[in-house]
Amino acid sequence: MAETNPDLINTILKHTGKPHLFEPGEPRFWDDPHISKGMLEAHLNPDNDAASRNHASIDKEVEHLVSTGILKPGDRVLDLGCGPGLYSVRLAARGMKVTGVDISRRSLNYAIAQSQEKGLNIEFRLINFFALDYSDEFDAVIQTHAEMNTFPDEKRDKLLALLHRALKPGGLLIFDVTTRELRMKSGEANGWYVSDGGFWRPDKHLILTQGYDYPEDNVWLDQYIIIDSDSVKIYNNWFHDYDLQTIRQVLQKAGFEIIHAWNDLTGAPYRACGDWTALVGKVI
């Protein structure tokens, strides 16, 4: 005999339509007690790019930024969204005075332990980006792996204003963004599978996935509906993609001029059809 749960079905159906632009999902994601464990494991996997760049690429990025003189020993650097300190530790080891900020307590605890183990004097703060309270303190801000793509326009502009204030005159904003070329390679994934325990939940659960395209806004949504014996949770991962022209306009509005543009932070020469754009903006 078939069993049905009308409340469960109705809850799922309520979330099967295309969401409004930047409609929020489950608010506790980065610091969820279980999910944050999986996130940390992904950050620390040296061979994948799921949460952070693979570690060989991070080494190349740091080497490029230092060897070109963009970052120098003695610089005060704000590592925005530092996670477990993969960039903070490398930059501090190169003689920079680093402050790392993140909202994941688990990742920050790992970063603090690593910095202490290596004898590095790094300040780490558990803080939301939008609560930053710095003024004329940093020579550079670095934010990697397309975190800038995750914000709607008004929050992006607010963050850029906070970073502009945090930087010294002539200070540098170093970051990367994804382009629509990368997003179109994945397509609008629509599927489901059952897990006996994994990234989303420790016990058996059902995962429904859907990709939504908002081409008129250059925005993409990866949505995950997670169903277990206790609840239905919706996780919306939003991405606002940019090309060089659109991100230049955003930066100019915020008081930055682009002084370097590459296809990634290792310094790969810029080409318009690349999956990524890496940038250095200077306070003007």
Quick description:
This protein has 284 residues and is α/β, with parallel strands linked by helices.
Secondary structure layout:
Blueprint: H1 6-14, H2 35-44, H3 55-67, E1 76-80, H4 86-93, E2 97-102, H5 105-117, E3 123-126, E4 138-143, H6 153-166, E5 167-178, H7 180-186, E6 190-195, E7 205-214, E8 219-227, E9 232-240, H8 244-253, E10 256-262, E11 276-283
Parallel strand pairs: 1-2, 1-4, 2-3, 4-5
Antiparallel strand pairs: 5-11, 6-7, 7-8, 8-9, 10-11
Do you know the CATH architecture of the largest domain?
3-Layer(aba) Sandwich
Topology-level CATH name of the largest domain: Rossmann fold
User: What is the alpha-carbon Rg in Å?
Assistant: 20 Å
**Total domain modules:** 2
Q: Estimate percent helicity.
A: 25-40%
Query: What is the averaged pLDDT score?
Result: 92
Q: If strands are numbered along the chain, what order do they take across the biggest sheet?
A: 3-2-1-4-5-11-10
- Give the tally of β-strands: 11
Strand content: 25-35%
CATH superfamily label of the largest domain: Vaccinia Virus protein VP39
What this model shows, in words?
This protein has 284 residues and is α/β, with parallel strands linked by helices. It has helices at residues 6-14, 35-44, 55-67, 86-93, 105-117, 153-166, 180-186, 244-253; strands spanning 76-80, 97-102, 123-126, 138-143, 167-178, 190-195, 205-214, 219-227, 232-240, 256-262, 276-283. The chain has a seven-stranded mixed β-sheet, sandwiched between helices. Strands 6-7-8-9 form a four-stranded antiparallel β-sheet, with helices on one face. The protein is built from eight helices and eleven strands. The N and C termini lie far apart (70 Å). Strand 4, helix 6 and strand 5 (167-178) form a beta-alpha-beta unit. The chain folds into two domains: 35-179 and 242-283, Rossmann fold, CATH 3.40.50.150; 181-240. 30% of the residues are buried.
